[in-house]
C-alpha cells in the first residue's frame, strides 16, 4: 500500500464568522480520480483552493505526498496544479498564449521553455501557432485547453479541477473531458475533480465525495453513483434530480 | 388572450445579422427562416452559432454595431424591421418577455423579489398596490414557490439560483406576454434544479397559451420541453425537427450534438464528439 | 456574441499582416494589437486633433530656439505694448518683449512641469493603489488613510503654502502639485486591483508559485496602467492650470523666464487696451488643456479591453 497522493484530515475553512468547510477528511490514492460534488455553497471549491494554498486552513491538515507540511510556494506549485472554472477569466487578457504557458517555467527557472511550450500545446491538441495569439482570440474550449496545458507544464503529481467544463457548451465539454481522461491515462497524475453535474463526475471519477454545507455526507463509488445507490438523504435527493435529468436526456436519444 | 390562430406569432424570413468587425463585416446569422405560433420552439447550437443573436434581434436588443436585414420580420403581424427603440420598448416586457442566464444578475439587487414583481404588475396593468400585491403572490405560487409570503420579502442575494430564476419568470409573467424568450435559462443553475425550472417554464407557457423560444446549447436536455428544435451552426440553420423525432435526425451536426453529454447510469469510456465540417458553413 | 463566420477573404499585403487572426510571431501578435488600437484611435476625430495639439506642443518645446522669432528675454522699452504685426506676430508686452517668442519658450516650462508631475504622481499613485488593493488588511487601511488625508487638502492652497515655505520656483511648484496629485491614482488603481485580485488569472498565477511582487508587477500593473494613463492625460489640464495659477501669483517660474501664467499676470494691467498681452498666453493654455483632454478621451477608446 503506497502513501496517499492527497490526504486531508479534519479540514476546516472559516471566513470570518462563516464556516465553509467543516471537518472534512478523505484521501486520494496515487493515479486515482476523486470527485467532490454538492450544490453551490457546499464548500467543494473551497477545499480545492485550500489544497492549492489559495485559502487559509483554519483547522486540520492537508498532506500531499512528497511535500512538507508547510511547503513554500515553488514546492507546492511543482506538486499540485489547478484548472479553474472559467476559462474566460483564468488567462491573463494581455498575455499571449505562449507567454501564459511560459510563465510557470519562468517562475520556476526552468530552461528549454520554447520546446516545452510547443510540447504542451500539442499535448492538449492545439496548433503550435496558437502561442502568438491572445486569449480573446480563442474559443472557450480552446482556452480551457490552454489552462490545462499550463497546469500540466510543471508536471504536477496532483491536478485539481474546479468545474473545468461548466462554462462550456455540452459539445465542447465532451472534448475537454475526453482530453482530461486521455492525459490522465497517459501521465498517471492524481485528480481531484469538483463538479455539480453528477453525470460528468460519474464519468470522470473512481470515487465521489458528496458535500452539503461544508460537511462530507457520503462517499460513493463510481458504480454506486451510476446505479443510484445512496444512503444519505441529501445524496439521494441529488441523485434523484440527476436521474430525472438523465431520463429526460435518454428519452430524447 | 386574443390569439388569432391563422397569423403566426413570429415570422422571420431571410433574417441576416452582421456585425462590423475590424476585418470587415462578420455575419452572425445567415438567412434564418422561422415561423412559429403559440408553440414551444428551441434554438440549439454551440456558442457562436447565432442562436442568441437571432432572439435578441426579435426584441431589439442587439448592439448598435449589428446590422439586421430580413425580407420579413413580423411579430404577431407587427413589422419589426426598422422599428424604433421606443417601439421595441413597448413590445418588450408587455408582449415579449425574456429570461436570461443568471437571475442574480438580471434582478435588481436593491429591491425585494416581491417589490419587483409588484412593480412589473403595476407597470403593465395599472392596478393599485393591494391588487398588484395579490397578483404577485399568485404569480409566485404559479411558479411553484412553496412559501410565497416569505420569498416576497427576500432580496435577490438571499435566494438560490433556482429560486431566482422562478422569481424572474414570475416577473416576466406579470405582463402576460404572448412570447417568452428564455436564453439559456438553466446554465447558471445547479443541476438539481435544472429540470425543475425547464418543467416550470414549459407548464406556464402551455397553461397560458404563450409562445416559447428556448435557446440552449444543450440539445438533449431542452428538446423534451419543446415541440420543435431548430439546430444552428455558424449562423446557419442545419436542420429543423419535431422534438419527438429527434432520434431520427439526419444532419450529422445534430447527431453529434445528441449524446455528447455524460449521463448518470449510462457509463461510457469515451464521449462522442463532434466533427465540425467546413461544408456546414456554406 | 462571437464572430461566427468571416465573409471576406483574408486581406493581403501589409494590411493583411497587421490584421491577421493567426499571427505567426510574437512581434506580429503585438503589431496587430497596436494596429487595431491605432485604428480605433484614428476613428475618433477629436482624439486625433488632441494628439496633433500635443504633438505640436512637443515640437514647439523641442524647436523653441529655432521657431522663436525673437529673444524671449530681450526687452526693448521703445517697442512696448505693440499690437500683433508682421514683425511681432503676437505683439509685445510691457517691456517690449515679443509675446510669440515668449509663448514658444513658455511651452518648455509647461512641458517640464507636465513631465515631472506625471513621472511623480503616476508611479507613486499606482504603487500605493495596487499594493493597497492587493494586500488589503492593515496595509490597505493605512495607505488609504494617508490617501484620504492628502485628498482632504485643498490642492491649490496647499501648493501655495508649500511654495510659500520652500520659496518660489518651478521645482517647488512641481513638488507642490505632485504632493497633492497622487491620491486619485491610488484610489483608481486600488479599485481596479480589487476587481482583479479575486479573478482567476491572478489565482492561477499564485497557484504557479508567482511571488506577490511578480503578480503586482507583471499581472496587475499592466492592467491598471491604461486607466492611469488616461487619467493622467485628462489631469494634465488641471496640472497646467495649477502651474499657470502659481505663475500668475508669482510663485512659479521666476521672471524673467517666460511662463504662460506669469505672462497673463503681467497682462492683467493692460487687459482693456492691450488685450493681446494676457489673451494670447491664455489661449495657449486653453488650447494645450483642450488638446490633452481630447487625447485622453481618445485613449479611453484605445485601451478599451473589449476588442470590438
UniProtKB/TrEMBL annotation, chain A:
| Keywords on record | ATP-binding, Cell inner membrane, Cell membrane, Membrane, Nucleotide-binding, Translocase, Transport
InterPro entries assigned: AAA+_ATPase, ABC_transp_ATP-bind, ABC_transporter-like_ATP-bd, ABC_transporter-like_CS, P-loop_NTPase
Instruction: Note the topology in the membrane.
Output: Peripheral membrane protein
| Primary localization | membrane
Compartments reported by the entry: Cell inner membrane; Membrane
Entry-linked Pfam families: ABC_tran (PF00005)
Q: Which GO terms describe its molecular function?
A: ATP binding; ATP hydrolysis activity
Q: Name one GO biological process term.
A: transmembrane transport
Enzyme Commission number(s): 7.4.2.10
Q: Which GO terms describe its cellular component?
A: plasma membrane
What residue stretches are annotated with the ABC transporter domain?
A: 6-238
Instruction: Kindly state which reaction or reactions the protein catalyses.
Output: glutathione(out) + ATP + H2O = glutathione(in) + ADP + phosphate + H(+)
Family to which the UniProt record says this protein belongs? Belongs to the ABC transporter superfamily. Glutathione importer (TC 3.A.1.5.11) family.
Q: What does this protein do?
A: Part of the ABC transporter complex GsiABCD involved in glutathione import. Responsible for energy coupling to the transport system.
Q: How does it assemble?
A: The complex is composed of two ATP-binding proteins (GsiA), two transmembrane proteins (GsiC and GsiD) and a solute-binding protein (GsiB).
PANTHER family membership: GLUTATHIONE IMPORT ATP-BINDING PROTEIN GSIA, TRANSPORT ATP-BINDING PROTEIN
What is this protein's name? Glutathione import ATP-binding protein GsiA
Q: Which organism is it from?
A: Seohaeicola zhoushanensis
The encoding gene is: DppF
Automatic annotation (TrEMBL), chain B:
Regarding the membrane, this protein is recorded as: Peripheral membrane protein
Instruction: Name the SUPFAM superfamilies on file.
Output: P-loop containing nucleoside triphosphate hydrolases
Q: Which residues form a coiled coil?
A: none
What is one cellular component GO term in this UniProt entry? plasma membrane
Which parts of the sequence belong to the ABC transporter domain? 12-259
Q: Does the keyword Acetylation apply?
A: no
Is Nucleotide-binding among this UniProt entry's keywords? yes
Cite a single GO MF annotation.
ATP binding
- Record's PROSITE patterns? ABC_TRANSPORTER_2
Name this polypeptide is given: Peptide ABC transporter ATP-binding protein
| Annotated organism of origin | Seohaeicola zhoushanensis
From TrEMBL, chain C:
Please report the organism this UniProt entry assigns to the protein.
Seohaeicola zhoushanensis
The record's section on SUPFAM superfamilies has:
MetI-like
Coiled coil where?
none
- Subcellular localization(s) per the UniProt record: Cell membrane
Q: Which family does it belong to?
A: Belongs to the binding-protein-dependent transport system permease family.
Matches recorded under Gene3D superfamilies:
MetI-like (1.10.3720.10)
Q: What is this protein called?
A: Cytochrome c550
For this protein, the record's Pfam families field holds: BPD_transp_1, OppC_N
* Location of the ABC transmembrane type-1 domain: 107-296
Name the GO cellular-component terms: plasma membrane
Amino acid at each position: 500500500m503506497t502513501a496517499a497522493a492527497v490526504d486531508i484530515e479534519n479540514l476546516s475553512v472559516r471566513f470570518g464568522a462563516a464556516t465553509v468547510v467543516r471537518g472534512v477528511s478523505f484521501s486520494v490514492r496515487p493515479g486515482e480520480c476523486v470527485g467532490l460534488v454538492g450544490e453551490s455553497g457546499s464548500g467543494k471549491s473551497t477545499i480545492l483552493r485550500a489544497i492549492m494554498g489559495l485559502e487559509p486552513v483554519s483547522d486540520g491538515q492537508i498532506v500531499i505526498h512528497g511535500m512538507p507540511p508547510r511547503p513554500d510556494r515553488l514546492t507546492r506549485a511543482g506538486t499540485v496544479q489547478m484548472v479553474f472554472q472559467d476559462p474566460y477569466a483564468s488567462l491573463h487578457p494581455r498575455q499571449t498564449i505562449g507567454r501564459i504557458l511560459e510563465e510557470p517555467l519562468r517562475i520556476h527557472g526552468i530552461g528549454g521553455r520554447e520546446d516545452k511550450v510547443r510540447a504542451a500545446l500539442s499535448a492538449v491538441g492545439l496548433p503550435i501557432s496558437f502561442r502568438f495569439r491572445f486569449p480573446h482570440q480563442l474559443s472557450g474550449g480552446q482556452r480551457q485547453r490552454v489552462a490545462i496545458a499550463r497546469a500540466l507544464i510543471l508536471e504536477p503529481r496532483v491536478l485539481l479541477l474546479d468545474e473545468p467544463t461548466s462554462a462550456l457548451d455540452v459539445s465542447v465539454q465532451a472534448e475537454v473531458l475526453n482530453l482530461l481522461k486521455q492525459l490522465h491515462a497517459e501521465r498517471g497524475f492524481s485528480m481531484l475533480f469538483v463538479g455539480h453535474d453528477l453525470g460528468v463526475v460519474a464519468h470522470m471519477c473512481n470515487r465521489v465525495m458528496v458535500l452539503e454545507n461544508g460537511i462530507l455526507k457520503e462517499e460513493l463509488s463510481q458504480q454506486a453513483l451510476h446505479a443510484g445507490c445512496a444512503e444519505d438523504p441529501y445524496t439521494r435527493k441529488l441523485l434523484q434530480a440527476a436521474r430525472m435529468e438523465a431520463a429526460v436526456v435518454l428519452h430524447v436519444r | 388572450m386574443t390569439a388569432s390562430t391563422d397569423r403566426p406569432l413570429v415570422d422571420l424570413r431571410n433574417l441576416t445579422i452582421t456585425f462590423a468587425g475590424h476585418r470587415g463585416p462578420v455575419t452572425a446569422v445567415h438567412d434564418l427562416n422561422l415561423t412559429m405560433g403559440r408553440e414551444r420552439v428551441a434554438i440549439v447550437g454551440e456558442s457562436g452559432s447565432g442562436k442568441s443573436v437571432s432572439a435578441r434581434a426579435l426584441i431589439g436588443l442587439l448592439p448598435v454595431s449589428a446590422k439586421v436585414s430580413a425580407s420579413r420580420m413580423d411579430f404577431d403581424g407587427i413589422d419589426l424591421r426598422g422599428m424604433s427603440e421606443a417601439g421595441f420598448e413597448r413590445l418588450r416586457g408587455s408582449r415579449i418577455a425574456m429570461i436570461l442566464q443568471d437571475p442574480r444578475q438580471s434582478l435588481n439587487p436593491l429591491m425585494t423579489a416581491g417589490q419587483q414583481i409588484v412593480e412589473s404588475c403595476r407597470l403593465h396593468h395599472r392596478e393599485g398596490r393591494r391588487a398588484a400585491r395579490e397578483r404577485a403572490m399568485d404569480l409566485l405560487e404559479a411558479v411553484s414557490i412553496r412559501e410565497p409570503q416569505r420569498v416576497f420579502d427576500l432580496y435577490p442575494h438571499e435566494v438560490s439560483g433556482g429560486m431566482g430564476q422562478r422569481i424572474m419568470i414570475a416577473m416576466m409573467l406579470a405582463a402576460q406576454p404572448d412570447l417568452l424568450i428564455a436564453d439559456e435559462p438553466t446554465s447558471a443553475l445547479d443541476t438539481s434544479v435544472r429540470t425543475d425550472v425547464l418543467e416550470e417554464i414549459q407548464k406556464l407557457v402551455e397553461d397560458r397559451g404563450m409562445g416559447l423560444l428556448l435557446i440552449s446549447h444543450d440539445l438533449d436536455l431542452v428538446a423534451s420541453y419543446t415541440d420543435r428544435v431548430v439546430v444552428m451552426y455558424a449562423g446557419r440553420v442545419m436542420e429543423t425537427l419535431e422534438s419527438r423525432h429527434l432520434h431520427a435526425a439526419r444532419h450529422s451536426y445534430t447527431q453529434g450534438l445528441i449524446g455528447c453529454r455524460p449521463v448518470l447510469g449510462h457509463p461510457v469510456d469515451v464521449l462522442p464528439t463532434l466533427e465540425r465540417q467546413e461544408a456546414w458553413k456554406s | 456574441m462571437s464572430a461566427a463566420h468571416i465573409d471576406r477573404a483574408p486581406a493581403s499585403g501589409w494590411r493583411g499582416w497587421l490584421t491577421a487572426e493567426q499571427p505567426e510571431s510574437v512581434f506580429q501578435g503585438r503589431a496587430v494589437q497596436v494596429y487595431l488600437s491605432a485604428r480605433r484611435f484614428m476613428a475618433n476625430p477629436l482624439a486625433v486633433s488632441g494628439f496633433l495639439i500635443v504633438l505640436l506642443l512637443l515640437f514647439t518645446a523641442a524647436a523653441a530656439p529655432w521657431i522663436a522669432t525673437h529673444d524671449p528675454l530681450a526687452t526693448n522699452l521703445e517697442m512696448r505694448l505693440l499690437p500683433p504685426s508682421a514683425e511681432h506676430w503676437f505683439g509685445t508686452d510691457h517691456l517690449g518683449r515679443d509675446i510669440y517668442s515668449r509663448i514658444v519658450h513658455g511651452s518648455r516650462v509647461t512641458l517640464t512641469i507636465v513631465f515631472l508631475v506625471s513621472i511623480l504622481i503616476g508611479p507613486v499613485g499606482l504603487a500605493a493603489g495596487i499594493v493597497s488593493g492587493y494586500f488589503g488588511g492593515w496595509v490597505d487601511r493605512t495607505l488609504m488613510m494617508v490617501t484620504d488625508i492628502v485628498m482632504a487638502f485643498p490642492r491649490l492652497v496647499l501648493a501655495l503654502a508649500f511654495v510659500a515655505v520652500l520659496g518660489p520656483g518651478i521645482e517647488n511648484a512641481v513638488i507642490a502639485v505632485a504632493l497633492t496629485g497622487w491620491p486619485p491614482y491610488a484610489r483608481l488603481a486600488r479599485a481596479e486591483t480589487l476587481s482583479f485580485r479575486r479573478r482567476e488569472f491572478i489565482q492561477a498565477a499564485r497557484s504557479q508559485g508567482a511571488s506577490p511582487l511578480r503578480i503586482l508587477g507583471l499581472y496587475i500593473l499592466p492592467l491598471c496602467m491604461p486607466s492611469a494613463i488616461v487619467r493622467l492625460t485628462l489631469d494634465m489640464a488641471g496640472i497646467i492650470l495649477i502651474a499657470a495659477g502659481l505663475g500668475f501669483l508669482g510663485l512659479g517660474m521666476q521672471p524673467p523666464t517666460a511662463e504662460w501664467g506669469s505672462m497673463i499676470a503681467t497682462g492683467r494691467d493692460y487687459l482693456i487696451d492691450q488685450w493681446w498681452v494676457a489673451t494670447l498666453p491664455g489661449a495657449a493654455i486653453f488650447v494645450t488643456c483642450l488638446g490633452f483632454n481630447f487625447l485622453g478621451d481618445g485613449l479611453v477608446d484605445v485601451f478599451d479591453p473589449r476588442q470590438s
